[in-house]
């Protein structure tokens, strides 16, 4: 019972205190919080802590430099002068700070695929472009069907083109090789995978 009495007196005292001080408490509303952040932005736009000619707001939000150091990269040129010159205020003069600075783009540095000019058609892969002509398409079709039906001959032709090596070709069994060749010649635009 004694504990209950102590709690009642303590909570009653807190309630009395809150009733007395309640009218003087400043309550933050949603709108007043927006004003606080706007006031902070306005304050940052109007001060220049490091005296380099850039406002603290610009240094923090636009240039990402230090508002406390007049020369963020310590190359003895202040941040504003570097920005006016068009150099990076975060990179000391003479240093390479980004990949774009490290590798300038020149026409000779473009990387091109060695296969870019090579047309990979079924007949080109098999090296039989000279054999095929427009006049004898039925004869060439018969030759292709014979070639596809004979895996040993198909392997010989593929190896003679130099486009595939024996080790890679040896990993493909005869049935898969024949199916790939059939897909390649019956549907020339399709993608063939082993």
TrEMBL record:
It comes from the Bacteria. This is Uncharacterized protein. InterPro entries: Ca-binding_acidic-repeat (IPR053180).
């Amino acid at each position: 019972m004694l504990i209950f009495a102590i709690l009642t007196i303590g909570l009653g005292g807190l309630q009395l205190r809150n009733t007395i001080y309640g009218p003087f408490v400043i309550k933050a509303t949603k709108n007043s919080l927006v004003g606080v952040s706007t006031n902070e932005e306005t304050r940052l736009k109007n001060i220049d802590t490091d005296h380099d000619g850039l406002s603290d707001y610009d240094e923090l939000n636009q240039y990402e430099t230090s508002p406390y150091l007049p020369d963020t990269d310590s190359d003895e040129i202040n941040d504003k002068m570097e920005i006016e010159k068009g150099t990076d205020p975060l990179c000391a003069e003479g240093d390479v700070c980004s990949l774009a600075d490290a590798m300038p783009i020149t026409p000779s540095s473009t990387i091109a695929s060695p296969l870019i000019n090579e047309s990979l058609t079924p007949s080109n892969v098999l090296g039989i472009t000279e054999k095929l002509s427009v006049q004898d398409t039925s004869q060439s079709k018969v030759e292709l069907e014979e070639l596809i039906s004979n895996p040993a001959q198909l392997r010989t032709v593929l190896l003679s083109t130099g486009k595939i090596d024996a080790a890679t070709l040896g990993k493909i069994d005869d049935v898969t090789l024949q199916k790939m060749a059939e897909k390649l010649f019956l549907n020339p635009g399709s993608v063939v995978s082993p």
